[in-house]
Every structure is written in C-alpha cells, then in structure tokens.
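Let us work through a complete example step by step.
Step 1: write down the sequence.
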Amino acid sequence: MNVNAVFSKYSISPLRNLNFGPMQYSEQTTRTFELRNEGLFDFKYAICDFLNEEEKKKIRDERQKEMEERLAGKEEEKEDVKVKPKKAEPKAAKGKGKAEPIPDGSVVNVTQYTVQPAIGSVAPGSAAVISVTFNAQGAKFYDSTLAIDIANRDPTDQADGIPFQLAAESSIPGINT
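Step 2: predict the structure and record it as tokens.
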C-alpha cells in the first residue's frame, strides 16, 4: 500500500500587496486579488487583520477542531467496519447532524479597507476573487496587513497567516499659497 500526503497548494495574485495610490478625500475605490487553488482538494480560506491575534487564534482553533472531527470520523469508520459491517444507515443519519458548512461570504473591515468575501472555499483549479475597497478619509497614509489562512497548507508556511499588504493615501485637495 502506498500513501501520499499532500498539503493545500495555492497562489496569490498579485503576490504580496495591493496599492491604491493617492486618493482624494471621500473617494472610494475597489481593487481585487486572486486566491487560486493549485492542489488536488478543495480548501477553505479565511482573511483577517494581521494584527488581530484574537481572530487569528479563532481561525487556528476552528482549523484544529475540523482536523480533530475528521480524524474522529475516520476512527469511527474503522471501528464500524471491524465491529458491525452492516451499520450503514446510522452513518447517513450522523452526517445530517453535522454543522452546515460555512457559507462563502463575510466581510472584514481593516482600518479604511473592506475585504470580501473574507471566508470561503476554493475548488481545485479554481480561484476566489477577493475584493478590497478603500474609503479615503482625512489626509493620511493607510498601511495595513491582512492575514490569509488557507486550511491544510504546509504548517511551516507562514504559521500566523500569509501576510498580504494594503496601502493607500488619502488626501484633502487644497492650494498652498
């Protein structure tokens, strides 16, 4: 018997950041980036503020819980096959009791940026297009970093989430004399 363990494979385009450039006060602009699944299996993703440790911990805990449920399900299947091979009906009923998958969607606000969808899943060979909207307020440079978490990726690959930078400058037009 051969076993091949694989991690989720992905690519992000553009690679590291979105730069909105200078914008006039009260303008709003939307840019997008792409999260592509280059692996063999679907993967879930979640996006949050890189500085929000509480949200990152919540995502890590959720991923850990999913892994434990999957492993527990595999152990139950093995026991069912060994003890009572005719136990197919209770398994079907048990599947209905599981929590519904998280719907793609959700919005995350990071300073003046709105990111959506902030959670979702991507099928192999497909991509999720993530929209980031910047709302210019005041005369200020806004530099923020998102944490992108992809389920089942190599644990040595950015354990705190894949950093993705956002940059924009809001300005109030005027004439200096």
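Step 3: interpret the result. Residues 81-103 have pLDDT under 50 and may be disordered.
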